[in-house]
Amino acid sequence: MHEYDLQAMNGAGAAEPRRLCTIAARNYAPSIALLVRTFATHHPDIPVTVLVVDATQDGWLPDCLTDSPCEVVTPDALSMSREAFLRMATYYDVTELSTALKPFLLRHLLEHDCERVMYLDPDIEVYAPLDELFRAAEQHQIALTPHVLHPMPRDGLNIGEETIMSSGQFNLGFICVSRKADAFLDYWSERTRLYALAEQGHQYFTDQRWVDAVPALFDHIVCRNPAYNVAHWNLHERVLDVDESGCWTVDGAPLGFFHFSGHDASEPTRLSKFVVPPERVRVEQHPALERMLRERSARVVALTPEHGLPPYGWKRTASGLDLTRAVRRTYWDAVRDAEAAGRLPPSHAFDDEGGRALTDWLLEPATPGSVVSRFLYALWCEHAHLQRVIQDPLGADGEHFVDTAREDPTILGLTPLALRPPPRPPKGGLPGVNLVGCLEGETGVAAVGRMLARMVGSAGLSIATSSPCPPEHGSRLRDPATISGAPFRLSVFAMSSGDLLRFANRPELSDHADRKRAGSWSWEVGGLPEWMLPAFDLVDEVWCASEHVRSLLLPNADKPVLKHPLMITPPSRAPSLNRSDLGITLEGFLFGFVFDFRSVARKNPLGLIDAYLRGFSPSDGCGLVLKSVNSASAPEQAAAVEAAVEARPDVQLLDRPFSEAEMRAFFHRVDCYTSLHRSEGLGVSIAMAMAAGTPAIATGWSGNMEFMTPDESLLVPCSLVAVGPDAAPYAEDAPWADPDLDAAAEAMRRVVDTPGLPDSLGEKARRRIAAVGEAATSAQWFVDRFEALTGIEAGLR
Question: What is the pTM of this model?
């Protein structure tokens, strides 16, 4: 961590006339580094200050940031109390907080013998000197750049004028101010402290809308040079190109800086996540723009640590409460009302008790006499589907609302923290488990991790969870109420052997150094690659969810490999979401399938499409819904899937993450779940569909045979063939299934054409999953392993 003293840097009493600054969280480090380095290329003598909003004095920062020519400061450097900042970190999300602190950082730097300070967003790269902008701030109090320089076309394409009107005329990815702007910074900081919300429907948009008033209130200059703040909102009016010397130009002149707002390095040729179809600027029609975006993506990836970036530090409390939008807005309302009434607001989320006071406050009645907590009522206010089901949450429907949430909290897309506070930290060595893994994503590994969390709970043990996984795994909330850290004698790593090896390079592993350790692994095809075998050295024993996985791990294992029971709890009632809520537009009898494009070869969606097309025509009144994620990670395969269904209006592709509530609803709203996989470690999605009472058709091989039999399922025969090339990380000569597509088509027709068969199979499937997932069996197994590994008597409490 680099703290700094400006007078020491510049010489006692010396005034540094110019400075650049930016603000972001730790997980934005590669972009920050690119801003700093590209600026330093053109202004090597101008110091750069980076405010990392979730950094602490002893906090870890990625190397790409600490190796860059900048000074890093923490929020403690700003002229506000620690309590005031932590309240802001509670009621603001990361974007709101970072923008809200902008005037505070500018004032801090101007007060430390700096004459002019430029702010640039961390997703900007600088391509030419910016002296003109510094001079503009010297001559005026404030220099601004507008989003656009000309009236936008009224053509219905995105983005349009309405977007600009709701977000502000000036883009605050850039601002430059001088010491003369003191009154402006007073005005701006007073408003961003509490009113930097991203609530465009209420006329708030972080720090930007307040600056629309600058032309009427303060001396300023609007810099209209098209070379500055080039971004998705103005590319339609500017020509981006490369000159003969290889330098970037705009309208034939040198490009000053480009604002990569909303660009994601994992989707190089998508201009911005903030632009939805129909787009005014299509990347494929602009070769220079496509080149710039690809080069930017490569730079970001090169600076991203192999083990990933640290999560946002103010995302959840130490006691495990996720600071969702509903939680933050509820707390914001309370702070605003308390200030208006001249009383103290509720405790923020980051007190010495791990945010427990905030959790307790959220669990209090929303209104006097109500059975609905503030937390549940906030969620009701946020979600239209709840408002359709629950008409009067604070009155006549209150009991029904609470009962619904208690029986199946996932109907709300929630964790049980909606209903009870998290457990207290252990005292005196109480039995418990440290559960570490990718617990939050739409993957089989994550689903098994959540299953283990439920097993821990059913055994009556306390639990501490952490999820050190990349962002693509983060589409769901965690199941259990948790405490933080690794306080217990047993640590369970619910991640693949490869992810465990990557985690071994992270400093957090030291928290588990003296713990007994079990690895909950999944593997689908052949033996583990040689590079994964050292993972056995990191655990005392290995657990897996199926005999199929166990048979693949045993040949190379030098530690015990044990199969654990399943714990798949059937929902007590169907979720309230219907097909349209999920984005499903098809009608009639629907076949459904869920897959991740990162496992596309093994999941075999093209085989399923082929089987469906063999069995059905568009006029049969049936449909197939393929729900996927991460298509950007496999663009060629995604294109192949799209091409396979292009001429079939009865096949729909849904490629986006689902919440827990949406996923459960999907399994209920399709009429038959169909998986023609080549191999499954367990087949959690099949089991979830069966638990919902939905009939299942699946390849009759691999981990799904742990819970599927011909009595309650339709199993598709297959032959075993070599994997072949292009299916890493599996060996080319390893065997996997080649399902009989004609037999699959016949099974699908049978379900549709046989009266009563779907209901009969669905009920048998539900009973089967309830039998194999019996909670008492799972709980006793977990207690036995806990006691064997730790020597601590647990018992079922």
Answer: 0.60
